[in-house]
Each structure stands twice: as C-alpha cells, then as structure tokens.
Model the fold of this input.
Amino acid sequence: MPYVLMKAFEEVPARFDLWMHWLTLGRLRRIRREIAATVLPGARVLELGCGTGNLAILLAHKGVSVVTVDRSPEMVEFARANITVAEVTDLVELRRLNILEIEDVLLAHQFDRVISVLTFSEMSETEVDCALLQCRRLLRPEGELVIVDEVRLEVALLRSLVALIKFPLRLATYLVLQASDLKSSTLAKKILYYVIELPLMLLTFLVVPPPTAPLRDLSGRLSRAGFRVTMNRLFLGGTLGFVRAEAA
Ligand SMILES: C[S@@+](CC[C@H](N)C(=O)[O-])C[C@H]1O[C@@H](n2cnc3c(N)ncnc32)[C@H](O)[C@@H]1O
Done:
C-alpha cells in the first residue's frame, strides 16, 4: 500500500479523495460509510484530521454535530468550501488546529465519539500517545474512539517485502513531483537540474524520514492511554487497521 504517496496527494486537495479511493481500492469509502452508519443523529463527534471534509459531511447529513480539525490551511480551505456546498455549516464546526492542541482549545466540550482516519500515521509516536490521552479526556465516560490508519505489519518478512515496494515508489513520486516544472525549462536549467539539484535531492531523500509511518502496537498504546479495544479489523493485506475502543 503506497501510503507514502499520501503527503504528495495532500498538496493537491482537489485530487486527494480520488487518489485515496484508488489507493485503498475503495475500502476507505466503505469504512467511512460504516463509521457514519453507527453514529446516532444528535450525537457529538470530534474528527481529527478532516482532510477534504468527507466524513464530517457524511455525519452531518445524518444529523450528527461535528467539530472537525486539521492543521493544513489548504485542506481546511478546501473542506470549508465542501461543507458550504453540502449545506451543513450549521452542524459542522471546522477549525484549523493541531491535534496536539485539542484539549486546550476544546476544554469545554465532551464528545460521544472521537474519530481519526489516516491521520495518526502522520504524527510521531510521542505525538500519537499524547493525542490519545487528550482524546480520552475529551470523550464522555461511555464514549468511543474510532481509528482507521496504516498499521505496521506484524510479520517481519512481509514488512520487508512491503518496504521493498514502498521505497522505489516513494523515490519515484518524490522525483516526479520535484521535476514537474522541468519540461518547460530552458536547456541551461535542465543541465543544472541533473548536475546539481538531482544529486542533492537524492541525498535529501535518503536522510529525511518518510512523512507517514505505520502505527506500531496500536492496541498497547490505546490501553496505556486508558482505552479498551472493542474491535480490531485489518484490511488490505493487514496494512490498514480499523479499531474501535472505549474507556477502560
Ligand atoms: C491522509 S489525510 C486524511 C484525511 C481524512 N481523514 C480522510 O480520511 O480523507 C491526513 C490529514 O490529517 C491532517 N493532519 C496530520 N497531522 C495532523 C495534526 N497533528 N494535527 C491536525 N491535522 C493533522 C493532514 O493535514 C491531513 O489533512
């Protein structure tokens, strides 16, 4: 599963949903619908990492009241437009916010459900642990946390095989994105690109860690943050996890 391409797609919100749909072989849409189907009208939901606003809109159409946050100004702008077109601005409160700030900013709120889809894998392990504790405190005692995300494969051999596919894919995407303006450049610029910029970029690629990392030991992390896992399903060859948890 080339989730490593995610960051590149996020830079073009208009195409993001379509890319995600194909990359997850349609699974993501089905999971979103499944999540929405289990939330009752009138419930209060906090969504972490709204992206283009799909899930928030789906929930609002069911009469669910949603506070949704995202740190990316481009995504927030795009989601705001989508939410307006869907005519659900009265039910969706959209905030440009880092997940690590939710407890401070939303202190006065209590949610029936906190939902995060493909977002925690964009955070460091320490950040995920910190965010989980905040989720726990923002949930009502009987509330539920729902996480859908890339998870680390348990079998080492499979992990190596996936890495073998991911690495060249990530490199190819990185180079294609960097060279996107090259076609229309002058010959001098092209020479400079191949002689100086390309070797430097390759070096950067090798030293900078990938923008997304599969979640490790999600059940353990949830239990340390005060949750009890009630459902843990795997999709797409074990690379995509769908977890439900409640306060322990
Ligand atoms: C891969 S997208 C998924 C978007 C959406 N949940 C979906 O399923 O289509 C991840 C989103 O999380 C946001 N994000 C990542 N880390 C975040 C953080 N620490 N605080 C707020 N938003 C974050 C990104 O800006 C991006 O919009």
About this structure: The chain has two domains: 3-152+214-247, 156-207. The two ends are 32 Å apart (CA to CA). Residues 6, 10, 20, 49, 51, 54, 69-72, 75, 98-99, 117-119, 122-123 surround S-adenosylmethionine (CB under 6 Å). The longest strand covers residues 139-150.
